[in-house]
Amino acid sequence: VQLVESGGGSVQPGGSLKLSCAAPGYTYSGYFLGWVRRGPGLEREGVAAIASDGSTTYANSVRGRFFISKDGDKDILYLRMNSLKPEGTAWYYCATTDLGLALGPSGYKYWGQGTEVTVSS
Length: 121
Hints:
Blueprint: E1 4-6, E2 9-11, E3 17-22, E4 32-38, E5 44-51, E6 56-58, E7 66-71, E8 76-81, E9 90-97, E10 110-111, E11 115-119
Parallel strand pairs: 2-11
Antiparallel strand pairs: 1-3, 3-8, 4-5, 4-9, 5-6, 7-8, 9-10, 9-11
């Protein structure tokens, strides 16, 4: 299993970024994909997750600003992040599981190496 994130970087508060995760074989039926972040000195936090049928769930802290999607043809998972706040500074990880649609980081089985996002003026 190899998940590879990209798209991180530095952005000013209020800005946007779009993260990508190459997830070969994991965008089809039976698997659930998600984004988990870990800010400096903080615990891991599930941000968003998506099922193979397109159902999604979001953390309250990002709902309405972050949008998760996937391209089944390309096997790529995305996270569009709008109106970023300084507390969005974190390493963002792509992860997958077959257990169900949920945000809890402990439920994911396979993880990427992460991509770093810094939100600062």
